[in-house]
Structure formats: C-alpha cells, structure tokens
Amino acid sequence: MSMGYPKKWKTDKFKREAPAPLKFGADGKFKILHLTDIHDVEPIMDDDENREIPDNKDKETINVIETLVEKTHPDLVVFGGDNISGYWEEFTYNYVKSTIDKITAPIRERNIPLCVVFGNHDGEVGFHTDFQMLMYMEYPNFRSCLNDADVYGCGNCCVTIKDSKGEKDAFAIWLMDSNDYERKEDGENFGYDHVHDDQIAWYEKRSAELKQANGGEPLPAILFQHIPVQQELDGFREVTDDGEYTFVERDGRRFYLKNKILEGRIREVPCPPNMEKDYTNQLESWKKMGDIFAAFFGHDHINDFRMNVDGIDLYQTLGAGYFTYGFERGGRLIVLDENNPRELYTESLQVPRITNTKF
Fold it and tell me: How many CB atoms lie within 10 A of CB 20?
C-alpha cells in the first residue's frame, strides 16, 4: 500500500561528488528533452498469454526514449513523473531497479545529465519515491536530489544553468514534487494531491536568494512537475445541457474550453489537484516571485497544448509509455536562449511505432 506520509530528507546525509555545472553552449543555446509518463515495467511481470504484447509495449516505450534522445541531442533530460507504472502489484526490489536501469540507459550511455520528478503512480504499491531516488542517484550525471530542503515530498530541488562562459548562474530549473493523493483518515484516496505550503515557502526563499545573487533581478526560470496546477482546469467550464459545444469529459462530467489554447491539442480535461479545494496558491506564488515564466506538466497523457494564464505559459507533454493509455507517444523539446532567456522554443515530438502487435 502507498502511504501518504510527509517524507522529509536532508541531502547532507547523502553526499556524492558533484558533476560539472550545466551551462549554455557556445551558441547560447541549452536543449532540454521532457519525457513524461514513461510508465515502464518489466514485461515478465505481465501475465498476458500473448507474450508479444508486453514485450512489444516495452520495446515501443524504450524506442520512444532512444529515438528522442538521438534526435534532439539534449543537454538535459527531465523525466516528468509516472516514470514507472508503480501501481503494479508484481513489482519487487529487483524489478524496480531493472526498470529504472532500463529507462535511464539511453541517457546514461550518452552521459547526458538527467533530472526527475515523480508522479502519483511511481511509488503507489510501496516502493516509495525516496527509495527510487536513491537508485537514480547512482548515475554519476544525475542532477536531482532527495530534496534541497527539509520539506514535504521527494525531489524538490533547483538546478541552475551557468552562462556560456561558465561565470555565473544565468537560468534556473525548478523540479517540484506534486505528490500523489490526498487521503481520508481511513486511507481512502479522494483526489490528486498538490504542492504543499512548505514546498512553496522553500521555493520563495530560494528564489529570493537567486534574485539577490542576480543583482536584484529575478533569475529567469522554468518549472517541471507531474500534476498540473489548478488554473489549467479553470480554462474549462462545466456544462450540463446538450447544446452545441466542443467538449471533453471527465468522470462523467462535460467541460468545454473557455480559454484559448494557444497551440497543441486538447484531448482530455486537465487533471489538477482535488477540484473541491482551492490550490491556486502555487501559480500565484510564481507570479509574486517573477522568475518562472513557463511550467511543464505530464499526468494527462494525450494532451500537448500550451495555455497562458496571467502571463505564464502552461505546457502539457505527450506521454511516452505504452503500458498505459494514450494515442501517439512522444515527448517535448525545449530550447533555451541565453540571449533571450524569457523566450523559449518548444516542439511537441511524436515517435512512430516499430512493432505491429495490436494493443
């Protein structure tokens, strides 16, 4: 069973040699590959009588990672959560380890820096995310950590990018744990969890420190987390009649788009934290601090849109894995420009299938 307890870690307990700092290239560019909802497992865990199905789901998933790493030649890869299908009861220690080894192999073999955030499913059956983080940390070029501070969740950290001369921090990448589920006293889930207040307080404190070090100007930044902010759903309005609407459904309820999607596709209603509560304070915090101008989410496997809320771009990235639902699979390329740090280039990428098995 997954447990909803506050996981508090201090990184000084897990010291390791620091890799060389990230920095912009001589051309002033820095490329990030966002791969989310990989959802991989070991095929042997699947008891399907047609062994081609789990075998090929795994092949297709790893091919998405291999193809996009080879195509984009990124300076950094970010796993966006639900990196393994952690709700499978068949998972053991060895299967968790071999699955993480498998999905990181295309990155490790090329010595590409890697960061991760976790999703609601990664640690669902008991192999908790802090346990998994220690596995990721065995990779020498891994840039995330258990936590930058003693706050709720696992993997909350800020990774900075130096300018092309390597002299000063020119950009920040925030990695936040959006956690898994809110729970009643009896342990029953009653909605997706959220970024907690102490996490937001840590972000604001660290953001202020980066601002001071940057001559009093907010250090330009983007953010990665799994579950989107609540304001994404505020772009939709629930309807109860049978009028002429272009709508999408969620939990038997119909929603139509009232905010303009600037680019990309909307195929399902965004699934932010528990809709019955007000969790709008995270985006409001970004507005107050003035550094984060774009945020990238997973969780909604078949969306790849961009929505702008109060001047902040919110991006969804296609899911990469085949052991879960979806249409196309792929990822997202993000290109930062040292000379125009608040203007980025991004592209949603799809990878064709390589097998013919129906699933």
Answer: 9
Q: What are phi and psi of 287, to 5 degrees?
A: -65, -40
- Residues 293 and 199: their CA atoms lie apart, in Å, by 19
Distance CA 79, CA 117 (A): 6
Mean predicted confidence (pLDDT) in 300-307: 94
At position 324, the amino acid (one-letter code) is T
Q: Which long-range contacts (CB under 8 A, 24 or more apart) does 274-277 make?
A: 274/182, 274/190, 274/191, 274/192, 274/193, 274/194, 275/191, 275/230, 275/233, 276/191, 277/191
What single string gives the DSSP state of each residue in 206-247? HHHHHHHHTTTSPPPEEEE-SSPPGGGGGGEEEE-S--S--E
Give Cβ neighbours of residue 212 (< 8 Å, ≥ 6 apart): none
Query: Which among 117-131, 260-274, 321-335 has the top mean pLDDT?
Result: 321-335
Are 77 and 107 contacting, i.e. CB atoms less than 8 angstroms apart? yes
Joined together, the tokens standing for residue 185 give 């006293």
- Residue 6, pLDDT score: 45
Q: What is the pLDDT of residue 247?
A: 62
